[in-house]
Amino acid sequence: MTALSRREFLTAGGALVVTFALPVELRAQTSTPKNKLAHYGSVDSWLAVGADGRVTLLTGKVELGTGVETALSQLVAEELDVAVDTITVVQGDTDRTPDQGYTVGSKTIHHGGPQIRQAAAEARQALLELAAARLGAPVDRLTVTDAVVSVEGDPAKRVTYAELIGGRRFNRAVAGTARPKRPEQHRVVGTSVRRVDIPGKVTGKHTYVQDIRRPGMLHARVVRPDGVGATLVRVDERSVAAVPGLVRVVVKDNFVGVVAEREEQAIQAARTLKATWTLGPPLPEQKNLHADMRTGNTTDKVLVQVGDPAAALATAARTIRATYQWPFQMHGSIGPSCAVADVRGDRATVWCASQGVFGLRDALATLLGLPPASVHVLFAESAGCYGHNGVDDAAADAALLSQAVGRPVRVQWMRQDEHAWEPKGPAMEMTVRGGLDASGAVVAWDYEAWTPTHSTRPAAEPGNILAGQLTGLQPRSGFIGGDRNARHTYVFPHDRVTMHWLAQSPLRPSALRGLGAPQNSFANESFMDELAAAAGADPLAFRLKHLKDPRAIAVLEAVAKLSGWQARPSPNPAASGRLAAGRSVAYAQYENDTAYVAMVADVEVDRQSGGVRVKRVWVAHDCGLIVNPDGVRNQVEGNVVQTISRTLKEAVTFDRSRVTSVDWHGYPLLRFTEVPEAIEIALINRPELPAVGAGEPAACPVPAVIANGVYDATGARLRAVPFTPERVKAALDTAPRT
Amino acid sequence: MATSLTITVNGRRHRVEAAADTPLLYVLRNELNLNGPKFGCGLAQCGACTVLLGDRAVRSCSTPVSSVRAAVTTLEGLGTPDKPHPPQQAFIDEQAAQCGYCINGIIMSAAGLLRTTPRPSEAQVRQALDGNLCRCGTHMRILRAVRRVAKA
To answer: Do A205 and B80 touch (CB under 8 A)?
Structure first.
C-alpha cells in the first residue's frame, strides 16, 4: 500500500485519517470532512434516548442494501447494552445527521463505525454516571442489560435509560476517553443479527424513495437529448397541448422536462413532445474503443518502481506479455433512479437515494440558486446502486422542475433513461509483461493500464450532475479509482506499475463497484496464472511462493482446504469432450490494504456453443473484525454473482451518437437459470483488528478465476471481458489442443 | 380519457378512475398507494412489478387496467411483518434480500409457481424465476428461500 492512492480516495471523499495514540481498536478513521469534525464532537450529534427508552442513531451513512443499517445498529447495541430492535436509525439527512462523507468504498463500518462506537461508549459512560448518582453506587458496581442499569448483587436497585435521560440531551462531548467494548466482551458484534429492514421489504411495508408520496405532488419526466452532447434547437409545445393533465413544459438550455398531474400522463407527454436537437460531436466507434485508449491524451503516473524491470525482462529465462480489455459497464439498478423535490420560494426539500447527501446538497444549492442552508436533502433508499448511478441526477431533475412549477414533483427515470444516461463503469486496457528465471520464479513484472477517471461524483460540483451539464456547466474531477488494485501484492525483485490516465472518455465515467479493482485484478490474476502455466507450476502454490503477507497466505490456504484443491499445473489434462471442466484460483487484497479474498471456481465450458458456466465457487474472506457474519456472507455472495454477470455478459454498446444498450435485452444480466449451484464461504474473523469492509472486495478475484477456469478446461486464454460465446469459440479455435 | 373501473385488490373492491390503457402497476401504486409492486422497466423484462391475477403471476407494468377481471393480489395481500405468509417468512429466515427491490417480483412469481406446482423441482424453480432479474446477486439465498417453502 502506498499513501498516495488512499490520499487520492480520501481527498475525493473529503475524508480524514485520524490516528489516536490509543490501542488499535480505538484508532479511528473517519469519513467526516476535516473542517466539520468539530461540529459532531458531542454525543447529541449522534444519539438520542427517547422518553419511551428507544435509542435513535443519527448517521450520515446510508443503507444501500448492504446491511449497514443493521451493522451500525449492532455497534450501538453493543456499546449501549440495548436491544437492536429498540434502535431507530436516521440516515443521511442534511438537517439532522452528521456529515460522514459518502457511503462508498466498503468504508461504512471501517470509517463510519468507530465514530459511532465512540459516541455510544461516551453515551453509556454518561448514563452510568447519572445512574451512579441516582442509585448511590459507584460506576464500577453498575451493570446494564437492555437499557436497564442495576447494581451488581442488588437487582432491586435499578433505573432505566428512559428514566435517566429519556427525551433530554446528553450535553456531553465525545472526549475519546470512554472505551468501546473489547472483542472478548462482544455480545452483539460478531453475531448474525437479522437484517432490520428485511421484514418490511418482503411485505411491501418498506418505504423506498419510489414510494414517497407528498400532498399535491405532480409527476414529471425529463426529455433526454437525442444523443450525447446534443443541443436543443427548439421545442414544439403545441405537440403536447392535447395531453390530458399536462401542467407545464419546462425548458432551460438543453434541459427539457414535462410535468403532469398523473404519472402515465407525464410519460405520454414525454413521448409525444416534439423536440429538435442538433447532434453533438460523434462518439468514437465502439470497435476502436481500446485502440483509441492507447493513443489518447494521457497523464502518466508510475505507482511502483522496484529495481529495473526492463533490464530484468531482457535477461529473463522466459518472458510473456498479455493485454487485457474491459468494456464500459453499467450499474444497472433494478429500480431506475427516482427523486421527489419540493422547492417553494426560498426553501428546497429533496428526497433521493444519494450516497452523499451533503455533497449533493451543495451542488443542488448552486443549481437552484439557493444558499446551501436552505436546501434540505434526505436519503430515502432506492434499489442497489453499486456506485454512482443516476440518483443524484434524478434529484436535480426533480429539484429544477419543482422550482419551475412551485409544487412538489416526482421524477422517475424510465429504464431507457437509466441505461443510457447513468454514469458508466469505465473501460480499461491493461498490458502486462512478466519474466521468469530459470527456477520458474517471477523475476520481473511490468504493468500498464489505460483508463479515464472512475469518479465524477457531484461533491459540490454541479457540473458533474446531468442537469448541470444540460444547463451549460462543465464536469470536473480528478483522476480517481482507476488505479485501485493496479498494484498487486506479490513480491518480485523487479516491478513497475504505471497508470495512463485518459483525459477524455466517450461515455460519462464514474464509480462502479470496486472502481478499477475488478479490472486490474482481472489482469493481475490472469497474468499470474499465465506465468504459472509458463513455469509449469500449480497456480495456487505459484502464488504462495511469491507472497509474504501471512494474511494473504492464510486466505489462499483456507480456500485450498475448503475446495479440496489438488495441486497440479494447468490446463487440466483430463478436460475433454463437449463439456470441458476446469478448476482455478485467484486472489486479491482490496485496495492493497483492506480485505483479503481468495477464490476457487469450478468452471464448465461448452466447446460447441462457447457457453461458460461457473458451477461452484469457494471463497475465503478476511475483513478484520466481522460485525455480522451473515451480513458479510450476503455481500460475498452478491459480489460473486454480480461479478460473474459482469464477466460473462455485460458490455455497454454505443454508436456514433448514443448508448444503444437501452433495455435488458441489450444489456443482459445473469439469470436464475445461470447462477452457480453453490457458493461456499470460509470467513476468517480477526476481532483484534479494525473492521474493514465487505461491500466490494470479493468482486476482485472473480473475473480472473473464470478466465483461469476456462484456461484450465480448454487451454484457451480469455483476455477480453465479457466472455461471450463468440469470444470463447474464437479463443478455442486458436488455443493449443489439450 | 379516464374511465371508471372496479377492480378487486387484496380482497377489497376499489373503484378507480384511469384511462383504459393505464398499466395496472400505476393504478396500484398511485391510486391505491400500494408499495409492493415496483417499477423496474415497464417492458416486462425484469419482473419487479409482478402481482397475482387470480392464481397467475403477471407483469403489472404491461397489463392494462381495463383488462383486469380476476382478483389482484399484491405483496401486501400475502402477509404483513407481524403475520407473514410462508414465502415471506422463508425469505426472512434465509435473509434473502440485499436492496430488496426485486423481492416483490420474486416472491409473487414464486407464489404463482407454488399455486400451480406445490412441489417444484430445482429446475422448475429456476425456470419460474428466469424472468426476474436481481442485480445485487441474492440469487443463492432466494433459491434457498423458495426451496424452503416448496418443501414445507
So the answer is: yes
Residue to substitute from A85, A194, A202, interface B, most B β-carbons within 10 A:
A202
**Contact state of A206 with B35 under an 8 Å Cβ cutoff:** yes
Whether chain B has a CB inside 8 Å of the CB on A272: the answer is: no
Cell triple for A369 = 440558486
* CB spacing of B99 vs A663 below 8 angstroms: no
Measure B82 CA to nearest chain A CA, in Å.
9
| Distance in Å, alpha carbon of B67 to nearest chain A alpha carbon | 17
Mean pLDDT of the A575-604 span: 95
> What are the tens digits of pLDDT across the range B94-134?
999 999 999 999 999 999 999 999 999 999 999 999 999 99
Report the residue from B29, B101, B140 with minimal CB separation from A335. B101
Q: Is the pLDDT of residue A8 over 70?
A: no
pTM of the model: 0.95
Contacts across the A-B interface (CB distance below 8 Å): 176
Q: In A273-390, where does DSSP find H-type helix?
A: 289-295, 309-315, 357-368
CB within 8 Å: B41 and A663: yes
Q: What is the mean pLDDT of residues B56-78?
A: 97
Taking all residues of chain A, what is their mean pLDDT, rounded to a whole number?
94
The 10s digit of each residue's pLDDT in A220-255 is 999 999 999 999 999 999 999 999 999 999 999 999
Q: At residue A112, what is the residue type?
A: G
Tens digits of residue pLDDT in A643-668:
999 999 999 999 999 999 999 999 99
Whose grid coordinates read 440558486? A369
- Between CA A320 and CA A298 the distance in angstroms is 26
* Residues in contact with A159: Cβ distance below 8 Å, sequence separation at least 6, in sequence order: A131, A134, A135, A148, A149, A150
Count Cβ neighbours within 10 Å for each residue of A58-95 and write b for 16 or more, e otherwise: bbbbbbbbbbbbbbbbbbbbbbbbbebebbebebbbbe
CA gap A381, A93 in Å, rounded? 12
Cis peptide leading into residue A23 (ω within 30°): no
Q: Which three cell numbers stand for residue A22?
A: 490509543
